[in-house]
């Protein structure tokens, strides 16, 4: 059975994992970063093409200054510490979200790491930072409207394809599988447009507990799903082949 081309993950439950052990929330993020490392490595070994990790939403930025700076420090440390291994594994880095409001040193480090990894031909690690699906779609609408105002496009040119190409995920396949840890069963403003035909997998495991074995269980669950894309039977139809 096929492995998914694109897996997206909402890595939730770090704070609750830590609280249940009498530890500060920061510790949950720290151990959660180890889960991310395991899953990135395994995704590469499985020849998954794209792994999108919801690392920070725009909404998260209203958490305490202390928590946000601890997450930034962790991201900083992770990128510096892991980049040699990422390069050895041919991983490329891409980001989605509003990076401009992140601390300048994080913006610089992300760009340096992207350049450091750009020769890779393996997994695309797509990190969603300060991201919200509705903000991404709003931005795409504005961009299309500006192109119409400049006379580069006509309103009849607006198509599903044009919208795909106007999003920050342009060029990437849509997610085949969305995993959410931490017990909640909702999308929380993640990849709203791109999830149209995605299979959802929810687990009560908290993200710091979600290691290689948990990831493989999610992949196997995906492989047992029958994807119909609105057709009567399982088909390898392309997305949007039918109205329903
Ligand atoms: C997810 O874990 C990680 C981030 C949002 C950065 P949470 O921090 O949301 O953990 P819970 O949901 O409070 O347990
Ligand atoms: Mg949460």
Note down, in words, how this protein is organized.
The chain is of the alpha/beta class. 41% of the residues lie in helices and 14% in strands. Helix 2 packs parallel to helix 3 and helix 3 runs parallel beside helix 4. The C terminus is likely disordered. 3-methylbut-3-enyl trihydrogen diphosphate (IPE) binds next to helix 1.
Can you give keywords for this protein?
244 residues, alpha/beta, Undecaprenyl pyrophosphate synthetase, 6-stranded parallel sheet, disordered C terminus, binds magnesium ion
CATH fold name, please? Undecaprenyl pyrophosphate synthetase
Q: Tell me the span between the first and last alpha carbons.
A: 25 Å
Unreliable stretches (pLDDT < 50, length at least 5) are 237-244
Q: Helical percent range?
A: 40-55%
Summary, kept brief:
The protein is of the alpha/beta class and 244 residues long. It contains seven helices and six strands; from the N terminus they run βααβαβαβααββα.
Topology readout:
Layout: E1 6-10, H1 14-20, H2 25-45, E2 50-57, H3 65-88, E3 92-96, H4 104-116, E4 124-131, H5 133-149, H6 160-166, E5 177-180, E6 199-202, H7 212-223
Parallel strand pairs: 1-2, 1-5, 2-4, 3-4, 5-6
